[in-house]
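pasting for ref
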Amino acid sequence: MANLSNINNKLIVSDGGHLLINQTANANYVLQMDGLDGTVYSYFKSDVATTGARIGLNSDDLRVFNQQASGELHLGTAGTTRLTISSGGDATFSGNVNIVTASTGQTPYAQTDQLVIENTGNSGIQFLAGTTSFTGMFFGDSGSATRGQLYYN
């Protein structure tokens, strides 16, 4: 079967079953889109959503947006949400967080590996606040969120 295309080659279904949008050459992807100005987005909307979601490229940047005013963005693996970003910008991780500048090759201690900051050189955490505010670390349990504290005022 020959290629099926519209008159301006804006939409092509190749004989291999690939769908090309604004493309004439197939890089062997099932769906391939190209924005003429370097920007291309796919838009998704359900019957109950008021705005939907966009996934696409803007120049060299991959962008993923939930356009719903109160919607969350979920990223996951193995069918489980691993990162949730709320509409207000708060991020919630499910699982451990490892921030690695350069790996030391050391395995973190399993009892305290929820947050690991690693580098082969200097490594640290810095807290910054306004001059009339304090910075601190608070320790809690199921009885109180502030059982112990280290803070600077």
